Amino acid sequence: MKIGILFEGGAMRGMYTAGVIDVLLEMGVKADVIIGVSAGALFGINYKSRQKGRALRSNLKYVNDKRYMSFYNLLTTGNIVNEDFCFNEIPNILDDFNYASFKRSKGDFYATVTNVKTGEAEYIKINDCKKDMEALRASGSMPFVSKPVEYNGQYYLDGGIADSIPIDKIMSMELDKVIVVLTRPNGYRKKRVSVAPARVIYKKYPKLIETMKNRYKVYNKSLDEIKFLESEGDIFVVRPSELIKIKKMEKDEDKLKDMYNLGYNDLKSKVDELNIYLGK
């Protein structure tokens, strides 16, 4: 039986995903395909490396360090997330990421990115986190507060711009069971927003602007598809059971812990349901 897992992004809402990941690790669920978007990719690599608790620990320890995520970084480097600190110093020195475990663990891992020239989503297979770190960084590079990231001669931004919840992608991959982890409560709908700032900042990339303009439509279409597949029993969905108001760049450690605990407890309460779905 082939299992797939899809992790939605959402900046610091990804702490919900971190909680879900830790329960999946406790359950011993091993996926054949993992697709992560933005924070879903950056936190999701800890699922494949089998490092329970790492996402929570690292975020709580460094979230209020100006080298992590701050307007100081934005003003001094052009990126709100410090490239060297977050993608080199933390995983290689301060809170070791287990690159070897990631490589040998079962499952193909894909990071969703948005090509700034074409405006389209791409799904980059991550074979080696150290070698492919720029692809992961691109997946989480939020528009307006991040520079486009170069990877293999192309420039990319946050995968959530073009495909926030790649349900069509994962359903096309001939899997028997699919687990979808969302970071918004049931009933949420994305609203249309003005692309006026994008027309100024990304004027060289008209297709990217068009993608941003239609993002809410694509997102809501994905939600409709997920709702249908869930009603048919084709997928298993984990989503926040309640609304916790949390900022994209949340610094309140208590709110981060609350979001993590919500994800952990939501899936913990559904362990039996998930086991039945997986045929265990």
Please give a structural write-up:
With 280 residues, this protein is an alpha/beta fold. Helices cover 46% and strands 14% of the residues. It contains 14 helices and eight strands. The chain has helices at 14-27, 39-48, 54-62, 71-77, 83-94, 99-104, 133-139, 160-163, 167-171, 196-201, 206-213, 215-231, 253-268, 271-277; strands at 3-7, 33-37, 108-115, 121-125, 149-151, 154-158, 177-181, 235-238. Strands 1, 2, 3, 4, 5, 6, 7 and 8 form an eight-stranded mixed β-sheet that branches.
Key words describing this protein structure:
280 residues, alpha/beta, 8-stranded mixed sheet, 8 strands, 14% strand
Radius of gyration: 18 Å
Average pLDDT rating:
97
Tertiary shape: globular
How many helical elements? 14
Which stretches are poorly predicted, pLDDT < 50 over at least 5 residues?
none
Oligomer state equals single chain
Q: What's the helical proportion of residues?
A: 40-55%
Indicate the proportion of strand residues.
5-15%
Structural class category: alpha/beta
Largest beta-sheet details: 8 strands, mixed
The number of distinct β-strands equals 8
Q: In angstroms, what separates the terminal alpha carbons?
A: 11 Å
